[in-house]
């Protein structure tokens, strides 16, 4: 049976660290070690920040779900602005932002997005099989 950590955070920048802390705690409990944990938490920070900055729905909440299912670890970040889809773009060297989806692409094994009935979800998948940065979970 898969292990899941799922929660909502208000659509405000000050809640991004809360998402990072909750995910770091879940990953530690599942025996996921430092390097992979750092990558997952960084991507969560990027995706939650994107949802906070780009969701045009007032008083929205951002959903965060992390699922460990066999050899796969899947991070999902959703918001209710289902028509505003993620668009990777090339950022110039002087631009302060715009590199989040490039990081997601570089650090995850696969990523994408889907439109659900009331939300949009951006997801990133990590394959655990054969990784040295995953410790066996405690019995």
List the helices and strands and how they pair.
Blueprint: E1 3-10, H1 16-29, H2 34-54, E2 61-69, E3 72-79, H3 100-107, E4 110-115, E5 120-127
Antiparallel strand pairs: 1-2, 2-3, 3-5, 4-5
Key phrases:
single chain; 139 residues; alpha+beta; 31% helix
Please characterize this protein's 3D structure:
This protein is α+β, with helices and mostly antiparallel strands and 139 residues long. 31% of the residues lie in helices and 28% in strands. It contains three helices and five strands. It has helices at residues 16-29, 34-54, 100-107, and strands at residues 3-10, 61-69, 72-79, 110-115, 120-127. Strand 4 and strand 5 form a beta hairpin. Helix 2 packs antiparallel against helix 3 (100-107). The protein starts with a strand and ends in a 12-residue tail after the last strand.
CATH class: Alpha Beta
Q: How can the largest sheet be summarized?
A: 5 strands, antiparallel
* Average pLDDT figure: 87
Q: What shape does the CA trace take?
A: globular
If you consult CATH, what is the topology?
Heat Shock Protein 90
What's the CATH H-level homologous superfamily?
A: Histidine kinase-like ATPase, C-terminal domain
Q: How many helices does DSSP assign?
A: 3
User: Residue share in helices?
Assistant: 25-40%
| Relative strand content | 25-35%
Order of helices and strands: EHHEEHEE
* Cα gyration radius (Å): 15 Å
| First-last Cα distance | 14 Å
